[in-house]
Amino acid sequence: MNREKILQNYEASDDNLLAILHDIQDASPEHYLSAADLRAVADYLGLAYSFVYGVATFYTMFSLKPRGRHLIRVCQSPPCHLLGSTNIAKELIRLLGIGFGETSADKRFTLEMSSCLGVCGVAPAMMVNNQVYGNLTPDLIAEVIEGLRRGK
Ligand code: FES
Fold it and tell me: Hey, CA dihedral for 121, 77, 15, 36, is it positive or negative?
């Protein structure tokens, strides 16, 4: 769905700001919000660009720079940390050859840390685009990454 259609789905109320930013970012193949996106949202809601920019930079789930096609976010909150998220993070760095906050040269993967993903019962957990994976082990991670490389 394009940006204009997303905006039309919402009443022009600043209560809808976060939901609109989420939808626009989700619709972006590069998982980010461009300056043009922020301006269009500000204009639509009658807000100052600087306010919308401030909101978009406050929340870590929003990015103002293009990210890889597969956005991998590893939970670093205490329950996941206690159950081994550090080893999961190390394994992802090894498999992908990139560090946290980086995007692979082929633009396929971006690796990020995240706070609680809301699935602590299956810690340690990560999210790839909109899909959550829990009870992570090095084998499961290798399987997921291999699947993404093969285009699954
Ligand atoms: S602490 Fe990791 S999903 Fe909640």
Answer: negative
* Residue 119 Cβ contacting ligand 1 at under 6 Å: yes
So where are the chain's domains?
3-58, 70-149
Model pLDDT for residues 56-102, shown as the tens digit of each residue: 999 988 999 999 999 999 999 999 999 999 999 999 999 999 999 99
Q: Determine whether the shortest distance from the Cβ of 74 to ligand 1 is under 6 A.
A: no
Q: How far is the CA of 119 from the centre of ligand 1 (A)?
A: 5
- What's this model's pTM, rounded to 2 decimal places? 0.83
Q: Which of 77, 83, 86, 135 to mutate to test the pocket of ligand 1 (most atoms within 8 A of CB)?
A: 77
Task: List, in order, residues 6 or more apart from 65 with CB less than 8 Å away.
Answer: 32
Instruction: Find out whether the beta carbon of 77 lies less than 6 Å from any atom of ligand 1.
Output: yes
CA 40 to chain centre: 21
Give the per-residue pLDDT at 91. Answer: 96
Over the chain, what is the mean pLDDT? 95
Provide the CATH topology of domain 70-149: Glutaredoxin (3.40.30)
